[in-house]
Amino acid sequence: MHNGYTVKELSRTAEDYLEAILNVTLHKGYARTKDVACELDLSPSSVVEMFRKLDGMGLIEYRRYEGVVLKPAGREIAEAIKFRHDTLKEFLLRIRVPEKIADSDACFMEHELHPETVRQIRLLIEVLRADPDLCDRIRKCMDAQIIEQTSPKT
Question: What is the pTM of this model?
Answer without folding.
Answer: 0.84
